[in-house]
Amino acid sequence: MDEEIAIIDSNARNEKIKSFLINNKKILIIGFTIILVLIIGYLSMKEIKLQNKIELGNQYNTTIINFKTEDKRRTVDQLTKLINRNDATYSPLALYFIIDNNLIDNLNEVNILFDELIDETNLDEEIKNLIIYKKGLYNSEFVSENNLLQILNPIINSKSIWKSHSLYLLAEYFYSKKEKQKAKEFFNQILLLQNANSEIKVESQKRLNRDFSE
Q1: What are the C-alpha distances in Å from 82 to residues 45, 48, 141, 177?
Q2: d(Cα 105, Cα 115) in Å, to the nearest integer?
Q3: Which of 165-168's residues contact partners 24+ apart within 8 Å by CB, and which partners?
Q4: Options 3.30.70, 1.25.40, 1.20.120, 2.30.30; which CATH number does 124-214 get?
Q5: pLDDT along the chain (214 residues), means of 10
Q6: By the 8 A CB rule, do 171 and 177 touch?
Q7: How far apart are the first and last CA of the chain?
Q8: How far apart are CA 10 and CA 47, in angstroms?
Q9: Coil/strand/helix, residue 203
Q10: How far, in Å, CA of 72 to CA of 126, rounded?
Q11: Contacts 24+ apart (CB under 8 A), 60-65
């Protein structure tokens, strides 16, 4: 008797499942199709991103390999296009190559490229802070105190690993301007940082002992 009831219950469940599949056939097909399209779309986007990355890498490598000092403008144009592609890897490398080889003399033109990376490129937070620090370093010989502070403020007001580097840059900046009290304040701030770069911390203490001892 129990076995017969179990068989009946099993048949009833099978009939319900069969009925559900028949009644919801269109919905199930649409749902399956959507899932399939999403999977294919995701894999396609991943492949496109990979191909774009390879393309940008080839463009960067070709540009620096073919670089000639007498044809700087062409190199600058090619690297600027790479920067404007806003790639997290090759856009910063392109700007670093421009700066390291002094390919652009115009300060504003270089700062526009820095801002393209900082404002428009999707970067890891600390990579972005590194680029901000490099912008401050690049501008430190040319801009006013207020402008340099404005550039570095996002790092100064954070807990970034580049904070001690930025404070040291400001300390050296003010020391070069013979504003020793301001320089001393920034050197002291470095000593109070928990995550300060160890070498910068040691150098700051040396500078305080050597140049600011009473």
Answers
A1: 20, 17, 27, 37
A2: 17
A3: 165/133, 165/197, 165/200, 166/133, 166/136, 167/193, 168/200, 168/203, 168/204
A4: 1.25.40
A5: 52 63 66 66 60 80 84 92 95 96 94 97 96 97 95 96 97 95 95 94 93 75
A6: no
A7: 104
A8: 47
A9: helix
A10: 31
A11: 60/90, 60/93, 60/94, 63/94, 64/97
Dihedral of the alpha carbons of 203, 209, 210, 214, in degrees to the nearest 10: 150
Distance CA 26, CA 189 (A): 68
Distances in whole angstroms, Cα of residue 171 to Cα of each of 98, 113, 160, 163: 27, 26, 17, 12
Identity of residue 213: S
* Closest listed residue to residue 111, CA positions, set 86, 140, 145, 82: 140
Kindly list the domain boundaries of the chain, sorted by start residue: 124-214
